[in-house]
Specification:
The chain is of the alpha+beta class. Helices cover 30% and strands 37% of the residues. A hairpin with a 2-residue loop joins β2 and β3. The N and C termini lie close together (10 Å). 25% of the residues are buried.
């Protein structure tokens, strides 16, 4: 496994309800696809969808994982998510405390191959 594949990422995703956010978070942590998921309280999203501006209440999930887990994470989230096109965006972590990074990479087990 390359060092790049174990690089930490933070995945942003939204859910339409707290219940859905909790189900997604528990699935990701329980399957070790993520070391931690934080669920932020209800917010309002404004977005373009099917030719119109839409507004909807959503919950934001901040998912801590590694790059090599992203493909499987996306697959599992898309299978459970209520949205036709869920937001699943990975952002690189450019710096982290060494103890936290060790915990994250040892907790979010590799799911490649």
């Amino acid at each position: 496994m390359s060092d790049e594949s174990r690089e930490p990422v933070v995945v942003l995703m939204t859910a339409g309800s707290r219940d859905e956010a909790v189900r997604l978070a528990e699935m990701l942590v329980g399957s070790r696809l993520a070391a931690c998921v934080q669920i932020l309280p209800k917010m309002e999203s404004v977005y373009w969808w099917e030719g119109a501006i839409e507004r909807a209440p959503e919950h934001l999930l901040l998912v801590k994982t590694t790059q090599d887990n992203f493909a499987r994470l996306e697959q599992e989230v898309r299978a459970l998510h209520s949205y036709e096109t869920p937001e699943i965006i990975a952002l690189p972590v450019t710096a982290s405390s060494a103890p936290y990074l060790e915990w994250l990479t040892s907790t979010a087990k590799s799911h490649t191959g």
